[in-house]
Design goal:
Elements: E1 9-13, H1 18-29, E2 33-38, H2 41-53, E3 57-62, H3 68-82, E4 87-90, H4 105-133, E5 136-141, H5 154-174, E6 179-186, H6 195-198, H7 201-209, H8 219-230, E7 241-244
Parallel strand pairs: 1-2, 1-4, 2-3, 4-5, 5-6, 6-7
Helix pairs in contact: 1-8, 3-4, 4-5
Length: 251
């Protein structure tokens, strides 16, 4: 079935780097007009320029998706400049690694407001347009830490478990409107959020030893999955989570 996205409008949060950047580029290559959202205007402009230089269509919007008013402004601008989005990828996320008893409440809220409140604000802002169109694809980026966990990940794991629960509820709510909601749970990918692990030879070797395929994921692999879940070809998939982790959580 067709996996082209010509004529579709996609919003990707956290699109200035890492997996968000890769997914945005992959959607643009498949023909979508991509609205890039992130806090860093300079990095975001670089991604937008890269997409357009290759013949793709992209718009850049600087915003903190954990702030409700900023999401509302972005939503209005996206609709004005590109029309109501067909695809929403809630990718923006942060991780603060430390023992729970050393966490401050402000740090806990920082993780939760970005990883949980952000997808809530964005989904609430863009779903009405999808309902009007009778078409939509919502992809929430969760994590293997929403299935298993590690020490010092209480806040991050908690936030990703919440994302998985929200995804299932959304799928049931929105199915009558021909809108699907799915999650992607990445394992180890060489992105900025995992820099602390990549820079620690002991932890890096330990991670590699626990991946059955014996390597970290390639960003283009998650890009291809995002395109599939955004396309007509995935129309019968909703309410599920696709783990892309080289076999990590199968153990």
């Amino acid at each position: 079935m067709n996996q082209r996205l010509d004529g579709r409008v996609a919003v990707v949060t956290g699109a200035s780097k890492g997996l968000g950047k890769q997914m945005a580029e992959s959607l643009a290559e498949a023909g979508a007009t991509v609205a890039l959202v992130a806090r860093s205007g300079e990095l975001l402009e670089g991604v937008r320029a890269g997409i357009t230089s290759r013949g793709g269509k992209a718009l850049a919007f600087v915003a903190d998706i954990s702030v409700e008013s900023e999401v509302a402004k972005v939503a209005a601008e996206v609709r004005r400049q590109a029309g109501s989005p067909d695809i929403l990828i809630n990718n923006a996320g942060i991780n603060i690694r430390r023992p729970l008893h050393e966490y401050t409440y402000e740090e806990w809220r920082q993780v939760m407001s970005t990883n949980v409140d952000g997808p809530f604000f964005c989904t609430r802002a863009f779903v009405p347009g999808m309902i009007e169109k009778k078409f939509g694809r919502i992809i929430n980026i969760a994590s293997t830490m929403g299935h298993v966990s590690l020490p010092h990940r209480a806040a991050y794991s908690g936030s990703k478990f919440a994302v998985l629960g929200m995804t299932k509820a959304l799928a049931l709510e929105l199915a009558p409107h021909n809108i699907t909601a799915n999650a992607i749970s990445p394992g180890p990918f060489a992105t900025e959020i995992n820099r602390v692990l990549m820079d620690d030879p002991v932890q890096f070797a330990s991670f590699n030893a626990r991946i059955p395929l014996g390597r970290w994921g390639k960003p283009e692999e998650i890009g291809a999955l995002a395109v599939y879940l955004s396309s007509d070809a995935s129309g019968f998939i909703t309410g599920t989570d696709i783990v892309i982790d080289g076999g990590w959580t199968a153990q």
